[in-house]
Amino acid sequence: MGNCCSSDVETKYAVGGERVGKPGVLSASSSMAREAVQAAALVTGSNMYSSWVEIQVACSGLKTADTFSKSDPMCVLMELTKNGWREVGRTEVIANNESPSFVKKLRMLYNFESVQHLKMHIVDVDQHHDAAKVAIDKCNNLGDVELKLSELLTASDRRLQMPVMHTSKKDSKVTLTADEMSAAREVITMQLSGTGLKDVEVFSKSDPFLEISRATEGGPYLPVFKTEVKDNNLNPIWAPFTVKATQLNNGDPYRSLRLRVYDYEANGAHRLLGEATTSAVKLKELVDGGDLGLLDKAGKPAGSLQVRMFDVEVRPSFLDYLQAGTEISFMVAVDFTGSNGNPADPRSLHYCSPEGRPTQYEEAIIGIGRVLEAYDTDKIFQSYLFGGKSRVPGAVVQHCAPLGPGGNPACQGINGILQAYRWALSEWALSGPTLFTPLLRTAVAQAAQPVPHLQYHVLLILTDGCIHDMQDTIDTLVEGSNLPLSVLIVGVGESGELKNMEVLDADDTPLVSRRKVKASRDLVQFVKFSDHRNDGEALAREVLAELPGQFLDWVRTNRVPLPQRPPASVPPP
After folding, report:
1. What angle do CA 224, 217, 273 make, to 5 degrees?
2. Taking Cα atoms as reference points, which of 211, 213, 215, 214 lies closest to residue 227?
3. How far apart are CA 369 and CA 47, in angstroms?
4. Is the pTM of this model over 0.85?
5. Among 33, 97, 100, 357, whose CB has the most other CB atoms within 10 angstroms?
């Protein structure tokens, strides 16, 4: 759940940022503001696994909007936000052409944890208008294409051909081709040290940490990384760290970087010791020797920095694995223990209101499931309940039972899960205790099954309280850390019995089994539903933020090669 930047420092050792407040809301009316928003997404989104993609657009058979010639088309890329459609970018204008292939690519940031709805708005631009500045509503509409970005990125060859809507020509088509920018695959491992830093303490020495920020176009510097704090040290050697090139400098090795060294203060009012500006290219040159001089606020020398390591590695990205056919298999488990309250009571977490409002469990399933649904090819999801007892006389408590009828856990799509959940509320009584181990053993068994293609399993557990098999749960998670599996836990309700979930979400302290075996990686993400009540999109963003990173950790820990890409399809005539 960590992020790389934080101004809310809980301890000096977490100054590199395990917790971060919400980034400020910035207007997207200028390129500077848009870049600030995108930089914040790179820092906080998907645990830094967001990627820049470029979309190339070609059209065929567009209608003619001009009287004496063919149309002069331009494509405008728009993304749906809570406030409506927002322009992301536009191509050039191609004059007098009903089947244009635009040269300028449309660039946008891909976030796995969000459903990104796009519109390709094709317009006819009059020749006397400046294409870069013309208001879209002043142009003739040639048609639209709407899609989800995930549909394009998971399509064969990342290529889609779609019919144009809102046009009088039935044979108008748009062909979209997406590519991940090459810099998105570059990972930089760096280590910095300082010499002769300024001492601002009276009875001890400074406690320095380093902040790296990148320049925006014509705007302020945006923080992208902070190191740990070195106590009482004027010649610190900070630990090596790894960042994506897109995070560090937006993929531009010549972009200006600002390095600032601060003296840590527990109240957050850190004191600037010195700063310098440089670039990734210059930092790499300093590996062979040389110093980067620091200046204090008065412009006086304040020590220097050295680059002890600067390695650039090209790694397959999360998108590369998706494109190569990796499938994300989604499983869900719903808490049917008695602590949820009688479903007939309006205070119950399972209460189904006459107005048709979804329960908290349904809100979580919808918000998270809508994102993961796009990456599961057959849309069949295994769904379970735990802690419930069938209303059949003599039934015993079940800790991993199919959610729907017929003893089959398979549900068709998110709507199938919701239907099964409503059925279960009428057929099962709430009971207890709360045990996770049977669910986890089922997920581990599924993840261990050999399959003909790469498959990664995601178990979503929705629960309202403390579990009663903590050590067994930890043991099973340690075993599962070697398998293609992530476990997402959403704590519903206002229960104070969710502290154990934070232990399972081992961001800081790895899980250790009773046999003293340490988990090979972090595979759990825990989020409180109450933090995002009535906002399924925000809930999904936080719950799924670590998933791409957990997948890539598993890939690298187990040295799973990138699957052979399917042969390129022949473009349609």
Report:
1. 45
2. 211
3. 19
4. no
5. 100
Q: Residue 103 is encoded by which pair of tokens?
A: 């040269």
Report residue 379 as tokens: 């849309």
Torsional sign, CA 528, 37, 458, 538:
positive
Structure tokens at 141: 């509409």
Digit-coded pLDDT (tens) for 534-553: 788 888 888 988 899 899 99
- Using DSSP's 3-state secondary structure scheme, residue 52 falls into strand
Beta strand 292-295 with 173-180 is unpaired
- For tokens 């379970």, the residue is 384
Tell me how far apart the alpha carbons of residues 195 and 236 are, in angstroms, rounded to a whole number.
7
The helix/strand/coil state of 96 is coil
Q: How many CB atoms lie within 10 A of CB 378?
A: 10
> Which residues is 455 bridged to in the sheet?
327
* pLDDT for the residue 400: 97
CA torsion through residues 290, 43, 316, 1, sign: positive
The token duo for 242 is: 């790894």
pLDDT tens string 424-444: 999 999 999 999 999 999 999
User: Which is more confident, 477 or 168?
Assistant: 477
Question: Which of 122, 115, 116 minimizes the C-alpha distance to 163?
Answer: 122
Lookup: tokens for 11: 């301890």
Closest by CA position to 350, among listed 271, 430, 440? 430
Amino acid at 18: E
How far is CA 511 from each of CA 447, 470, 485, 514, rounded to the nearest angstrom?
19, 11, 15, 10
Model pLDDT for residues 477-522, shown as the tens digit of each residue: 999 999 999 999 999 877 656 777 888 988 778 999 999 999 999 9
Least confident of 9-23, 74-88, 417-431, 464-478: 9-23
Is residue 442 within 8 Å of 413, Cβ to Cβ? no
Burial class (CB in 10 A: 0-12, 13-18, 19+), 47: buried
Report d(CA 287, CA 178) in Å as an integer. 36
